[in-house]
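BACKBONE GEOMETRY TOKENS
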Amino acid sequence: MKLRIIRAKDQKERELVREFTVWAGNQLLGPKLNRNCKITVSFKKFPKDKDYEGLCSVLDESYNPRRFLIHVEENVSLKRKMEIIAHELTHVKQFARRELIFKKNTDFWNGKEIDPDLEYWLQPWEVEAFGQQTCLYKAFRRRNCKK
């Protein structure tokens, strides 16, 4: 993975975020796809009226996207930042493997059109991402505690 980190709080946070992002990307994408992705993680302050802490954007409009921008709320704990990164990296995986496709007013999940009125918490890509954010963070912590 080619990884760029923007606006980390300090060098220690930057290094830990880099280590976690590369490790989690490898877990989600596998080594080959992970090597071919370019990801920018940018910490920013989201407007208070928004109820989200992270955002994943596809930067290339190709059939097989490989360039992504992940925005992460800067005013949360390091643990929460890593969970948000894991959540958004799950979306990277979904876009890169074409499991999730957004086309104008239609969303596709694994080739099937999804009801546009489906509640956010029930959208299959969000169900997967919320599950992965906790699992990946806990696995990373266990791995690092053994070092």
